[in-house]
Each structure stands twice: as structure tokens, then as C-alpha cells.
Amino acid sequence: MEAGGLEWVLVPMQQLVSWGAAGAMVFGGVVPYIPQYRDIRRTQNAEGFSTYVCLVLLVANILRILFWFGRRFESPLLWQSIIMIITMLLMLKLCTEVRVSNELNIKRRSFADFDLNYFWHWSKFTDYVQCVLTFTGVTGYITYLWLDSSLFVETLGFLAVFTEAMLGVPQLYRNYQNRSTEGMSVKMVLMWTSGDTFKTVYFILNQAPFQFSICGLLQVFVDIAILLQVYLYSYYPQKPVSHTAHPASTKAL
What we know:
- The chain is mostly helical.
- Helix content is about 70%, strand content about 0%.
């Protein structure tokens, strides 16, 4: 009777914990970008945030959704990708509006120009949407043709999580270029670290495809490297490196 009573309590508790973990996986990934979004909106300055972070996450999550068609994984991970894509588009919209409003150069750049020098540095949000839709269409068609190949599907899964593991690299490089972390939300990076640690543990405990666990660990290491930059540039300020590239390149990241 006592065992039955404990089971009556433990089963709902386990279910609640499971639901909580799934909810954290779905929405936890977007939480770090809330303070960064608010900072950009408040200061009307997006210089400290690398929009290539948005590019990395858009590519990674589109590939992860395509991977799901070849090898089904847990639904929370699928929904996480959908929510993240929406979030990154909102971040891009804000960053583009702020950058264009502050930009002295009146010449507008568009996706249709096919100018690699200005890739991911366009003047309208719609150009980014066109690029994302083009990438989705091309990769979706290739996936449709090779969906029966287990090698292709596994490679697609690896590319998805490896790309996501490189999430912090554009920000890491941006900080290195500026010799400063000014304009970057430290709260965002702290949330990255805690979220990526939770996510990696979740992958391991739920026996997600091995690509997820390996790249999750790599992502945590990159997050720690950015936190080390925060410490280094705060306590040992350095002069920024001068760049000889064209003026627009200073905003390319």
C-alpha cells in the first residue's frame, strides 16, 4: 500500500519534471537574446552584437529540421529549432533597422546584388529573408533527393549541430577584433553557457544522436572562451587593432 502511494506521487512528479525539461529545451535557447535585444533597442546601437550569430543559428536550425525528416528525434528539439529561427529573424530585423538608421553611407545593398563583399550586410530585412528562403529551398531539395541515404542523413545531422557549436565563434572573433567586449551583453553569454550546459546534459541523458552531445560540449568550451575575454578585456584593457578593409567591413560582423 505504501509503495503504491509513493508511486501515485512519484509518477506525476516525474512527468512534471519531464515537461519542465522539455519546455526549457524549447524556450531556453531564446532567453539569452532577450537582454541583448533590449540593450540594442534601448541604445539604438547594434555594433557590439555580431549578426553572424544569427546566420550561424539560422543555418544550424534549418539543417536540424531537415535532419529530423531523415532521422526522427525528440519533438522538443524540433520545436526549439522553429522557435530559434523566429527569434533570429526578429534579432536581424532590429539590428538591420538600427544599423541602417545610423549608417552614413546612403548606398543600399541587397541580396540580389550577389556581392560577396557585402554578404550578410544588406540594407533591408527582406533581403535576409530572401537569403534564408533560398538556402532553405536549395538544401530542402537536396535533402529530398538524398533522404534515403543514411550517410547523407548522418552527415546532415553532424553539419547541423557542428554549425550550432560554432555559434559563439563570430562573437569571439568580434571581441578579438575590437579588443573589447563593450556592447556585448554579458548576461547573454552567461545564459549561453548555462543553457548549453543544460542542453548537453539533456542530450546525454535522453540518448540523443551522438552528434548532438559532442557538439554540445564544443559549444560550452566556446562560451567559456568568450567569458575569459570578458575578464581579460575588463581587467587588462587593450587598444583595438586597426583594420585596412573597406569601411563597411567594420560592420560585417
